[in-house]
Amino acid sequence: MLMKIIGGIILFNPDIYRLKENVNSILPQVDKLYMIDNCSSNIEEIEREFKGLRNITIVNNIRNFGVAKGLNQIMEIAKTQGADWVLTLDQDSICPNDLIVKSSRYIEKRNIGIICPKIIDTKINVLLTEPNKDIDYEFVNRCITSASLTNVEIWNEIGFFNDELFIDYVDFDYCARLFINNYKILRMNDVALSHQLGDSKIKKLFFKEIRVTNHSAFRKYFIARNITYYIRKYRKVMNVKLEYLRLIKVLTLAIFFESNKKEKIKNYFKGILHGLKMNLKND
User: Fold this and answer.
1) pLDDT score, position 70
2) Distance of CA 94 to CAs 18, 100, 240, Å?
3) Distance (Å, rounded) from C-alpha 102 to C-alpha 29?
4) Among candidates 244, 111, 277, which has minimal Cα distance to 180?
5) Closest listed residue to residue 232, CA positions, set 185, 174, 272, 179
6) Which residues touch 121 (CB under 8 Å, ≥6 apart)?
7) Alpha-carbon distance 20 to 206, whole Å?
8) Which residues, 6+ apart, have CB-to-CB distance to 231 below 8 Å?
9) If DSSP codes are grouped into helix, strand and coil, which group holds residue 251?
10) Contact partners, residue 282, CB within 8 Å, separation at least 6
């Protein structure tokens, strides 16, 4: 069966060179590519580079609405155009040239909400997901948004990306709702996405190497807030033990290894407080 697949990239002050690599890798693989720009300061440069190019449409938001709303904009466009799947991308990810070809092996499987690749953080050359090397694919509990092929019909059925989250855990919240509604996430173990997670660096803590993302104070707020929200919302249906550990890890790494500690720690605890007060949508 011939499927219609469109691509979408959420933009906010992107590095143009990296974005060009991103676009060049995915444009030949999709029927159309949409760029949702969240009021980038370099929008003129973006438009000089991409506006008017065949099969590319830029949508200009009047302010930064966040990742979730941008994803929903892309999915709404896909629904209107009769697309079956949407390939969502971060602005700094580089897809392999055979991503869609290899994904197409699985698009007719039943109850598949997302098809995704394994992830490599190219900044530190670390594999962020640990696949089973003996099989071509496996079912996983969650995945990041970038390079995920998302089923439009299922997205429309289970409810949209939660735009209250803005950024961070938008993808994991959606994956949890797929799980709750008995849909699956299929990860291809023979396909890798080149991705950059924050300003990652490898540090040593108690003789063990760990990855430090160096996210800004702004991001620390949303990470802490949205993990807290996720734990509250899904504690009865998902294993959230690792989320508690991640909350501790985010604070520990900021204290030991990152700059601007005072502001990051302040935003971290502010995020937790706000996360405890957030309305639990879709409960």
Assistant:
1) 97
2) 8, 13, 30
3) 11
4) 111
5) 272
6) 127, 128, 195, 196, 197, 200, 211
7) 40
8) 240, 243, 244
9) helix
10) 159, 162, 177
Residue pointed to by tokens 């969650």: 142
pLDDT, tens digit, 9 for 90 and up, residues 234-273: 999 888 999 999 999 999 989 988 889 999 999 999 999 9
User: What is the token pair recorded at 54?
Assistant: 């065949």
Contact assessment for residue 86 and residue 78, using Cβ atoms and an 8 Å cutoff = yes
Q: Which domains, and CATH codes, for the chain?
A: 5-195 (3.90.550.10), 201-277 (no CATH)
E strands present in the chain: 5-11, 32-37, 56-60, 85-89, 112-121, 126-127, 137-140, 148-151, 184-195, 201-205, 208-212
**209: which 2 tokens?**
């190497």
Owner of token pair 């676009």: 23
Please check whether residue 272 is in contact with residue 230, taking contact to mean a CB–CB distance below 8 angstroms: no
